[in-house]
């Protein structure tokens, strides 16, 4: 599982917060599925024409694992059915740029890769790996995507990518029974979150399940706090390294995050437990154990629903969600996305991009849950419950008013590499939240090296 898998985009839409306040904390239809056509496919006729590719073999690489990979495989099966091609999913490792570089150096690049970072797309273009999208895929983009999403898939004015998947990463999912047992209500501000965490932990259930073994989740914690506290202008500057990580605004955000990370009793398994917990477990342990789970809350995007589905909890009933609380004047909304890019100049690769840019493909995976599409032609009724439906509607309603996740904008060496850069610095911070200055110094040294300034 990776970020959104998302990838990881920062959306400054009031619509999301409004939808969250209205619908996220209590959705009556829970996990109710919408009517579907035969074998779970859309009842509607296909809306995109694809070429016949009998006997053609394609490989698609992504960093997705588990249910996310399984659900995407269903999309690839439909592509095979319509074209006659054979498609193999190739599991990739982080950083995906390094993984692809090895494959390309060995003369065996995948036909298409789904990149979870803007920086990875730029690197693929600079390395002359990526192929511009063809006219058929471009037509789907023009019909189905806002200008902002198309721009994210372009480099220096040329369209290279199709944003197949998006994610709202400013959500805190909670165990309804644990909240009820402790008499806690969903908080709207950071101060209220800390108070709720104190009450929950005092009741015998640690407040938060933190996936500290996966550094990308820690960047998302920081980014939500920073966006709300420092504001969008500072956020943009830090994302481009126009201000240093030693800036006072970073100090304030880390100090705020330390109010949560610094309380061992707030964390499932304490500090050591948080550092050893990978993302999937951070979710599943929050929604097992009835009203005495390992933790009452877990922070991450809409894709958390995929992991909740691996438990007995039902989204909308046992598992509820509230927007990330406001630290400053406005609640933040950080999102992410995965961009599909052709790495071979083949008819099959372009056909797959065309399919991934269509509502046909997105609706297949949307039905499975834990997936949000930026494709405005997707029927919102295909989402499996009201929570995910409202998240998707808010994403589309945002139009072009969004930014991309900060760490995904950074060079992969800083913002997307396990055991290095921002991921490692924030893991060290989780281990010792009192060392704000040391964390800042490490972040700035790594950023300066990666950005080359």
TrEMBL record:
Keywords, comma-separated and alphabetical: Signal, Transport
Span of the signal peptide = 1-28
**Which Pfam family is an annotated match for this chain, by its short name?**
SBP_bac_1
Annotated region (Disordered), positions in chain: 28-49
Q: Which InterPro entries match?
A: Bact_solute-bd_prot1, SBP
Q: Do the record's keywords include Transport?
A: yes
Q: Family membership, please give it.
A: Belongs to the bacterial solute-binding protein 1 family.
* Listed name of the protein: Alpha-glucoside transport system substrate-binding protein
